[in-house]
Structure formats: structure tokens, C-alpha cells
Design goal:
Chain A: Keywords: ATP-binding, Kinase, Nucleotide-binding, Serine/threonine-protein kinase, Transferase. The complex is a heterodimer. Chain A is α/β, with parallel strands linked by helices. Chain A has 25 helices and 21 strands. Chain B has 2 domains: 1-110, Rna Polymerase Sigma Factor, Chain: A, CATH 1.10.1740; 125-180. Classes of the chains: A alpha/beta, B mainly alpha. The A-B interface holds A 2-6, 8-15, 17-22, 28, 31-32, 82-84, 203, 206-210 and B 15-20, 22-24, 29, 32, 107-108, 110-115, 117-118, 124-129, 137-138, 155, 159, 162, 164-165, 167-169, 171-173, 175-176.
């Protein structure tokens, strides 16, 4: 061999291979591309081709299929692709043909044209791509419905062991009639094959063989999973498609793919960054929390944190569309409730309407109660707030346990204040419940700070209300600076009282207690407390058979100088109360710490006869359900502010005592009431 | 600009081959570059006129190279009065031997395509695949190759088959590139 040129030395051994290729004999070709050769010798049946577009491997034409007499999309191997691509092309056609699903494009024919090059035909897509559709900004729900169909198609392909690896909006065709087709399976590969090659690859690697051309990226940057970029020849699985579907969902929700920028930037971002909140990046778009969570899970950098299957992803979107919460968002109870109402909109509307009608009628019929009702509701809300405050505090309790006693003391004080508020605001509406709640609050406070005096005083007070003097006296309170001196007198007078919720004093016992109470204190200071004691007792003990009229009589006497001065008689048959009193000043409502309402309210009073000569302000009858009030036996009645007696029909006065004009001016009743002067 | 590109392509495709053939025809190393340049220019000018129907590309290419070589030797012989070898004589005499020369260049062209293709195959494979294949070319039996390389016989067969397939593919593509 002579001296070469630029180091070129011919290798004559190779001449025969060139000749072999040139001979173009069928055998040589069958070696090279057996699949292709199967298709050779088939006639041409397509005409009127117009070029539609080109892909990496193929040119696509619109053509008329003479045999089936229909227009089809005809894919031909690109002219600049040589023999090396023949089988790749044929395999793509066969792969699509093996998939039979309403949302996957169909292959009609695979063959070889007169030039000896492979082609295949598919459905001719007349719709627009999902990409165009997203740009036209249709309702989100429409796009999500399409997304479900894409998921169906991909899940089906996965079930056949095929992964698409190039899912993107451009590869999804949608038409006006709801048909959705997943196209361009050129990058798809068979999991089975990957696995087999995986086994084989140990050999390949040992031999250092590279089968795939270098720098050949499968898929489209921006929709490719990170592992598709980093591990070129690695075995990808379904989760790469899950990632691409996540990108598509991202597009659907936000109008844009997750990453933008130059090719290098997009690849870098895909490899290295987690996608961040869509709601904050696209504040103008309506993106529900649950959908955002689904996208973020599908786009997790690590495949293991993504949905393990497309079916799982689809179910999440489906749940969202049918108004359930998704797993990815880990919903709270409130969110679940909200979704429940949203799902059952109609039923919810009917229920709401029914409620509105109901409450409207109640409002109309029980106008009188409205005020009280509102108060009750407010109390309830407040009580609920208190209880949630308590539960919050008790959760905090564990966390705070390690903290300083100062904080614990503060917390205890808070609890005591809560108890105090409950006692003041809702006791008269719901005495037993309030007492139970308050006891719980105070016990908690004492657990936090056993030394808390305010808690002890409160507890002492509650024991008093329940008439459990034994327990009250055990409270170990400092004798000096007694905060409840007016109560301590009675408590100490009956040190053996050990009543509680389950165990109430007898009528005689209670009457005796009220009789005695007045000896220990000035009525004005203790009336509120006694009203509460009675309220609590009444709540537990009263019934249809036992109205506690005698006990109440004792309380009224106690308010007004004792039984020596005041006598109250209740006639149940006529619901009449006769009150006789010599007291200088007559009261029927407690002033200090009481409800301020008439204490006769505990009885159904229709007729009231007041034989009272001391000063009596008629405002003490406020909100009494009385129909007739007879004042003709008494004197020194006063009335100087509004008095609501909703059912008043008749009021009898001694002439010269109160002027009818004054009564008309101040008394409010639902009906007209009669004024009789004697 | 288009011409620049076409020229660069021409140079990468054919320069090595032309230089080699001229060397084989005993053109002095000092004159070879000049003559090669002339051949390339001639190719550049005549390529648009090459008609596939009238003959194979390699015959046409051989003709162009031969003509240039003849003209060169004629101009040289006036001064040197001496001809280096029989092939040169045949060239100048322009008789029936010129077809021998053409045939010779065509043979070299085929070897050139094969060699170039093999270079690409070498780039595509790593490890021992190509080594195994070349031993096969030299007539070493599969059994001996297996013994020498420590691979199994079936691996040797499989490797040879793969390399051969790839070589055929590369030849096919090279021909598409180099033989318009």
C-alpha cells in the first residue's frame, strides 16, 4: 500500500460488504429490515396526497384511500431517513395498530410504496389539537373532561405494556363532538421490550455497545419527565407518562406548561426544580386547591412521589369533577362538607328552602320569642366558642406543659375568665349545661394552677349554686378577704348540704333554706344568687306535676322580708297568683347578679292579684305571660318605663292610683287590653 | 454562501479519496494537492451535469480523476520525458488500458466507502464488538475468536451479526451521501 492521504488507508476487506449492499438482493435486505420486507410487494392504493406536516421520522399527508374509499392520514418515512429508520417506522405503525381504544388514533393500513419505502395510514384528524383548544380559553371543566379521556387512553396503553413518552397538548386531537385522540406514538416503547432489553443490556454493557444514536432525546422538553432527561437509555415506566399528564393538566389549569425559557433552561428546570404553587403563580386563573395538589403530585421530581398509575391520577380528577375531595389535597372536614353541599346542590337548595320557610313561619307565629331566640342562639354560639376555646386550650395544654408556671397561671386565669363569662351570659338560658361546662373549665384551670384563688372562688360559687355546701367548705379559701361574704353566711349555715345535679333537696328543705337565707343577708345582696340556686333547681326538678310553686313562694317571701311579711299563693286550676305583702318595698326581680326578669316566670301565671301596699315598680312584671293583672287591692304602684306584657288583656286598678293614660303609654301588648277602674 | 457550503461538503466527501488515488497513480507528493484541487474544481463544475441515467456515479468520478491525471502527466512528460510506470503509460496512451484504470479507481472507490463506513461503525460501538468483527474478517473462526476474547461463541456470533448489520446500514447511508 502506498503512502496515504491524510492518513487514509483503504481496508480492502470491506469491499465485499459494499458490493453486497449494492446488489440490493432481497436476502441482504431481509437481514437488515425483516419487518419492512414483509410489506414489500404490495400495491399502491392512495392518491391525491397533500402534505399536512412532518415529524422526526415521518411526513404526514392527507390522501384518498381507494380501497376503503375514504380520506386518511398517510404517514411516509421522511425522504432523508435511510434504511436505518425503516423498522423504527414500521414498528411505530404496528404499535399503534396493536392499541384499540376509542381515544387512541387508529391505524388502517401498513405497507410499502412503489419506491420501496414504508408507509402507514391512520384516521384523518379533522379537529384541533388540545394546544389550540387551550389557547381558545374554553371552560375549564370542558378541558378536564378531555383530560379524563386522555388518561383513559394512556391507562389503556399502559395496560398493554406501552408507554407513550411524548404526551403533550400538540399530540392530542379534539373535535367538536367530544372525540379525543392521543396521537404520535413515535417515541412510545414497549415496557415488555424495555424489560427484555434490560436483561440483555448487561451483555450490551459488557460489550460497551450503544444501540441508540447519541444526543437523541425521546420526547419533548417541557413535557418530559426529569428521568427521561437524566437517564437516556434507562428503563422508563408509566410514571414518565404520569409526569407528562401532569404537565398537560398544568397547561389546562394555567394555560401554560410548567417550565418556560430556552431549551437549556427548560431542561435544567425539569431536572432540578419542583413545580411551585399554581394558585400563587397564576392568581388570575381559577384553580382549585385540590386540582393544584393533583398537579404538584403528578409533577413530583422523584417518580416515587408521583401517582403510581394513570388510573390513580384520573380518579383524582374524576373525584374533583364529581365534587369529591381529592386524596392529594388531604381535605379537612369543612372542605368535605363544602364539597358535599356542592355535589348535592339541588337537595341542599331544597333543604335550605324548607329551612327558610320553616324559620319564616316560626318568626311570624312566635314573634314574641324572636328576641329571646336570638339571645339564645347568641348564647349558644358564644358557649360553643367557649368550648372550642377550651378544647384549643387543652390541646395547647400539652405543648405548654413544659413552659413556665407563669404561662400556666395565665392559661388558668383565661379559663377562669371563660368560666365567668359563661356563668354570666348563658346560665339563665341553660343552667345545667352552663354549670357542667363551667365546672369543666374550672377543673382544668385548677389542674394547671392548683393555687388559683379565682378558680377556687368560682368553684365555691358553683358548689353553692348546686347546694353542695360540704364541697364548697372544702375549698380551703382564705378567711380574710372573703370574695363572697354574702354567700358564705348561708353556706356555713347549712354545712351538711351535699346536693348536686343528681341529688336535690326536698321541697321542705329548699323552703327552709330560702326562709333561713334572709336571716343571713340583706335581700338585695343575695337575691341574684338565690334566683340562680332556684333556677338550677327548677331546671332539674320541675315537671308538669310539680311546678315548684311552694318553693317559689318561699323565694318570693325571702325577697320580701320573709314569710312574716309576704305571702304568695298559687292556684293551679286557674293559674292564678295571689300576692300579699306588708313589706315597705316589694320586689319580684333580683337586682344583683340575677336575670332581672320577673321571678314569677317559673309558673304559668294567667291572673295576678297584688295585695301590696309597699312601693312596687310594675317593671318587675316584665315579660310575664299574664292575662289579667289586678292591682285594685294594693297601692303605691309605680310605672315609669316601658313594660312588655305580651298577652295582657285586662288590668284592674283602683281609681286614683294609676292613670289609664300612663298605663296605655307604657304597657305593650300584642292585643288590645282593657283597663278597668274600680 | 451556498457555493461555500457545497464546496466544503465536496472537500470532506472526496478530498481524501482523490489524494489517495493520485498517490496510487504516482503523482508526486508536491503536485498532489494542486492536482486534487483541480479535480475538486472540476467536480464542482460538472456535478450539476452528472446524469444518473447515463452511468454510475463512480464511473463518472473515475473519468474526472483520470482526465485530470492524464493532463497532468502529459504536461509533465514534456519536461521529464520519462514515465514512471505502466499504469501511467496506459493513461497517456489512451488506449484500451484506460478502462483498466477506470476499473482500478472504481475498485478503490468501493473500498473507500467500505472503509469510511467502518470508521463510523467504530464510533458507534464501544468495547470488543468491532474487534470481534475484524477478527472474523481476517478469517479467524468463531471458535478461535471466542477463545482469544474469552467470550462465548454465541456472543461472538451475535456481535458479528450486529456489527455487520450496522456496517450495511452505514454503507447504505454513505452511498446515499457520496453518490448523488
Amino acid at each position: 500500500m502506498s503512502e496515504g492521504a491524510d492518513g487514509y488507508v483503504p481496508d480492502k476487506r470491506l469491499t465485499r460488504f459494499v458490493t453486497e449492499v449494492e446488489s440490493e438482493d432481497v436476502e441482504a435486505k431481509e437481514d437488515l429490515c425483516p419487518s419492512f420486507m414483509e410489506l414489500v410487494h404490495r400495491g399502491d392504493r392512495y392518491r391525491d396526497e397533500t402534505h399536512l406536516g412532518s415529524g422526526g421520522l415521518k411526513d404526514v399527508y392527507k390522501a384518498f384511500d381507494e380501497a376503503a374509499r375514504q380520506w386518511v392520514a398517510l404517514a411516509r418515512l421522511r425522504k432523508d431517513r435511510g434504511l436505518r429508520c425503516y423498522d423504527l417506522f414500521v414498528h411505530e405503525a404496528w404499535l399503534i395498530a396493536s392499541l384499540s381504544h376509542p381515544n387512541i388514533i387508529k391505524v388502517h393500513d401498513v405497507g410499502v410504496d412503489e419506491g420501496g419505502r414504508p408507509f402507514f395510514t391512520m384516521d384523518l384528524k379533522r379537529g384541533t389539537s388540545l394546544n389550540d383548544l387551550i389557547r381558545s380559553n374554553p371552560p375549564q371543566i370542558e378541558l378536564l373532561e378531555i383530560f379524563l379521556k386522555i388518561c383513559d387512553a394512556v391507562a389503556y396503553a399502559h395496560s398493554k405494556g406501552i408507554i407513550h413518552l411524548d404526551l403533550k397538548p400538540e399530540n392530542i386531537q379534539c373535535d367538536r363532538f367530544g372525540e379525543v385522540l392521543v396521537c404520535d406514538w413515535g417515541s412510545a416503547c414497549s415496557l415488555q421490550k424495555e424489560k427484555e432489553e434490560g436483561v440483555d443490556s448487561s451483555l450490551s454493557r459488557e460489550l460497551g455497545e450503544q444501540e441508540r444514536k447519541t444526543g437523541d432525546l425521546r420526547g419533548t422538553p417541557g413535557y418530559m419527565a426529569p428521568e427521561q432527561i437524566t437517564a437516556q437509555d434507562g428503563c422508563h415506566d408509566e410514571r414518565a407518562d404520569v409526569y407528562a399528564l401532569g404537565c398537560i393538566l398544568h397547561c389546562i389549569l394555567s394555560g401554560e406548561p410548567p417550565f418556560k425559557g430556552s431549551l437549556k433552561e427548560v431542561l435544567d428546570q425539569t431536572k432540578n426544580s419542583e413545580v411551585t404553587s399554581l394558585r400563587s403563580r397564576f392568581p388570575d386563573r381559577v384553580i382549585s386547591k385540590s386540582m393544584e395538589a393533583v398537579v404538584l403530585k403528578a409533577l413530583a421530581l422523584s417518580p416515587s412521589r408521583r401517582y403510581t398509575s394513570v388510573i390513580e391520577l384520573k380518579q383524582e380528577v374524576h373525584k374533583f369533577l364529581s365534587g369529591f375531595s381529592t386524596t392529594a389535597e388531604s381535605p379537612g372536614l369543612l372542605r368535605k362538607c363544602r364539597l358535599f353541599v356542592r355535589r348535592h346542590r339541588n337537595s341542599a337548595r331544597v333543604t335550605l328552602a324548607a329551612l327558610v320557610v320553616l324559620s319564616l313561619s316560626s318568626v311570624l307565629f312566635m314573634q314574641r320569642l324572636v328576641h329571646q331566640q336570638t339571645v339564645t342562639e347568641e348564647e349558644q354560639v358564644r358557649a360553643n366558642q367557649l368550648m372550642s376555646e377550651v378544647s384549643l386550650l387543652s390541646t395547647e395544654y400539652d405543648a405548654l406543659f413544659e413552659e413556665s408556671t407563669g404561662t400556666k397561671k395565665e392559661l388558668a386565669e383565661k379559663l377562669v375568665r371563660s368560666a365567668d363569662r359563661a356563668l354570666n351570659s348563658s346560665f339563665f338560658e341553660r343552667p345545667t349545661r352552663t354549670v357542667t361546662d363551667t365546672i369543666r373549665l374550672l377543673d382544668m384551670a385548677l389542674e394547671l394552677d392548683p393555687e388559683s384563688e379565682s378558680a377556687k372562688w368560682q368553684r365555691y360559687y358553683i358548689h353553692g349554686l348546686q347546694m353542695n355546701h360540704q364541697e364548697a367548705l372544702k375549698m380551703e379559701l382564705p378567711d380574710e378577704q372573703h370574695l363572697l361574704p354574702e354567700i358564705s353566711g348561708i353556706v356555713e349555715a347549712y354545712p351538711n348540704f351535699n346536693y348536686g345535679r343528681e341529688n336535690r333537696p326536698s321541697p321542705e328543705g329548699l323552703k327552709g333554706f330560702f326562709k333561713e337565707a334572709i336571716l343571713h343577708n340583706d335581700e338585695s345582696r343575695i337575691s341574684g344568687y338565690l334566683e340562680r340556686v332556684f333556677t338550677y333547681h327548677h331546671m332539674i326538678e320541675s315537671s308538669y306535676q310539680s311546678l315548684l310553686a311552694e318553693e317559689l313562694s318561699a323565694l318570693v317571701a325571702c325577697f320580701n322580708g320573709g314569710s312574716g311579711q309576704t305571702e304568695m299563693r298559687y292556684i293551679p286550676e286557674t293559674h292564678k297568683v295571689v300576692l300579699k305583702s306588708d313589706a315597705d318595698k316589694f320586689v319580684l326581680a333580683s337586682r344583683n347578679g340575677g336575670s332581672g326578669h320577673c321571678i314569677l316566670r317559673f309558673l304559668p301565671v294567667r291572673h295576678l292579684e297584688l295585695h301590696v301596699d309597699g312601693n312596687f315598680n310594675l317593671k318587675h312584671l316584665k315579660f310575664l305571660d299574664v292575662e289579667t293583672v289586678d292591682l285594685s287591692y294594693g297601692a303605691n304602684f309605680k310605672l315609669n318605663s316601658r313594660l312588655n306584657l305580651p298577652h295582657l288583656k285586662k288590668i284592674i286598678i283602683r281609681s286614683g292610683e294609676l292613670s289609664p293614660e300612663l298605663l296605655r303609654e307604657h304597657i305593650r301588648s300584642i292585643d288590645y287590653f282593657e283597663i278597668v277602674e274600680i | 454562501m451556498k457555493d461555500d457550503k457545497a464546496w466544503a461538503e465536496l472537500v470532506t466527501h472526496y478530498r481524501r479519496f482523490i489524494l489517495y488515488v493520485l498517490g496510487e497513480l504516482q503523482v508526486n507528493a508536491s503536485d498532489r494537492e494542486d492536482l486534487c484541487q483541480q479535480v475538486l474544481i472540476s467536480l464542482m463544475e460538472d456535478l450539476p451535469n452528472y446524469d444518473r441515467e447515463r452511468g454510475r456515479f463512480r464511473s463518472w468520478l473515475s473519468g474526472v480523476i483520470r482526465n485530470k491525471a492524464v493532463m497532468f502527466f502529459r504536461s509533465q512528460s514534456r519536461y521529464q520525458k520519462r514515465l514512471e510506470n505502466a499504469r501511467q503509460k496506459a493513461l497517456l496512451e489512451g488506449d484500451e488500458h484506460s478502462s483498466d484504470v477506470d476499473e482500478y479507481i472504481e475498485q478503490e472507490w468501493v473500498a473507500y466507502i467500505g472503509t469510511q463506513a467502518m470508521e463510523r461503525v467504530r464510533d458507534a460501538f464501544e468495547g470488543r464488538a468491532v474487534e470481534v468483527f475484524e477478527m472474523g474478517l481476517d478469517g479467524v473462526s468463531a471458535g478461535d475468536i471466542a477463545e482469544k476474547t474469552g467470550l462465548t461463541i454465541s456472543t461472538v456470533y451475535s456481535l458479528r451479526k450486529r456489527v455487520k448489520k450496522r456496517l450495511s446500514e452505514e454503507i447504505y447511508e454513505l452511498k446515499a451521501e457520496l453518490e448523488p
